[in-house]
Amino acid sequence: MKRWQFIAFLGSIAFCTACGVKTENKETKKVRTQNSREARSETGQEAESETVQEAESETVQEAGKGNDQAAFPKAKMQLKYSNLLDQETRDRVEEALKNAGLKEEKIKSFFSAVDEYNEAVGKENLVQKMTAIDAGFPNLDSDKLVDAWLNKGGYVGRNCRITAFSLMGDFITVGNPVPGDTTMLFSDFDAISAKHIFTGEEKKNYDTVFSYIDVDDTQDTGVLSDEIIKSWKEKEISFHNDKMHMISVFMTMDDGLNKVQEFIGHVGVLLEEGDKFLFIEKLAFELPYQVDEFSSLQEVNDYLMGAYDKDADGLTAKPVIFRDGEMMKEYRVLD
Predict the structure, then answer these.
(1) In terms of Cα–Cα distance, which of 307, 287, 306 is closest to 143?
(2) Measured between alpha carbons, how far is 178 from 132 in angstroms, rounded to an integer?
(3) Confidence of residue 56 (pLDDT cuts 50, 70, 90)
(4) Second label for 138, Cα 20 to 30 Å away, from 57, 144, 250, 308?
(5) Between residues 11 and 313, which one has the greater pLDDT?
(6) What predicted TM-score, i.e. pTM, was given to this entire model?
(7) What is the rounded average pLDDT for all residues in the chain?
């Protein structure tokens, strides 16, 4: 596949999944859905459900049930992050993972996957150390990264969900592993199968955790949060680590043809490091691994909302951010 074809494909999928298919009218949504399906059928790949735009909001709005929500000021967002090239950051992450009880072989597997990607796209195209920027998200040279990734054959890699579950899987229990709709996870499944990442019960648990959840057609994030919790309770999904947490960005899928659904469009792993927090994420199959340093859980929420709440017209529900099995207490919407 040509690079320009791949870029066009990324754009169409990102629009339909990360931002939510807008609801101007049913016919518009039908056309978009058909275009999206045709693109997937032709390429056999799915772009990660994430955008990489910088947050520019100067105020925030408290999230909750209903629309009457108080606004209050917020300073311009900043980000401190690394692509895990420098030894200092790698040592910090390794130590935090050890302190959280992760097995040595899983730590080695994680860094092996990081090195595979970094070497494929060229270390010179990534930040060389923990870097602070006056923006809510890195200004990635996506064209160059995708070119490099495709020049390596677009090798079978990992996305945010595979990365997070590889680290968190041992600390997640699924008592009733009955997956819901997993149709849109086919690229995850291709990658998992190609490298035998998850098998047997572990794979069934993966499918259950990341399957799409049917919800009411509402923009009330409180209602959506309750429905997600209800679904996970029915599947008996629970988390068991007080030093490492799965942070999930639930987004709305509404194509105008089927039941409205919530799905984990982005996910990462949060580690405690003294009075700091380290957030491990893989931005997309073709985009980098990233470790972000935060001083508070509020900063974690604001970073994710700034990056992934991109429906400026307000036609779909706002993203809902979960810490393990419940909405983050620090959850709020950027205004």
Answers:
(1) 287
(2) 43
(3) very low
(4) 250
(5) 313
(6) 0.81
(7) 82
Examine the pLDDT at 68 and tell me if it is beyond 50. no
The DSSP output letter for 261 is E
Residues with Cβ within 8 Å of 286's Cβ and at least 6 positions away in sequence, in order, are: 10, 47, 48, 145, 146, 149, 150, 154, 157
- Kind plus residue range of the DSSP H or E element containing 198: none
Look-up: residue for tokens 């039908």?
A: 30
Q: What pLDDT is recorded for position 18?
A: 41
Single-letter residue type at 226? D
* CA distances, 228 to each of 15, 166, 189, 234, 239 (Å): 23, 22, 23, 10, 15
Over residues 186-225, the pLDDT tens digits come to 999 999 999 999 999 999 999 999 999 999 999 999 999 9
> For tokens 């409205």, what's the residue?
260
Residue 242 to residue 140: CA distance in whole angstroms: 33
Residue 104 predicted with pLDDT over 80: yes
How far is residue 310's CA from residue 211's CA, in Å, rounded to a whole number? 23
Q: What torsion, rounded to 10 degrees, do the Cα atoms 297, 301, 304, 308 define?
A: 170
E strand spans, the chain = 59-62, 71-73, 79-82, 131-133, 172-174, 213-214, 237-239, 244-253, 261-273, 276-284, 287-294, 320-323, 326-327, 332-334
How far apart CA 172 and CA 164 sit, in angstroms, is: 11
Dig out the tokens for 306 from the structure. Answer: 């700034």
CB 158, CB 109: distance < 8 Å: no
- Nearest-angstrom CA–CA distance, 238 and 246: 11
d(C-alpha 83, C-alpha 130), whole Å: 8
**Pair 11, 155: CB distance under 8 Å:** no
Tell whether the torsion through CA atoms of 186, 282, 297 and 301 is positive or negative: negative
- Whether 310 contacts 56, CB under 8 Å: no
Asked if 270 and 323 touch (Cβ cutoff 8 Å), the reply is yes
Q: What is the pLDDT of residues 214-238, one digit of tens each?
A: 999 999 999 999 999 999 999 999 9
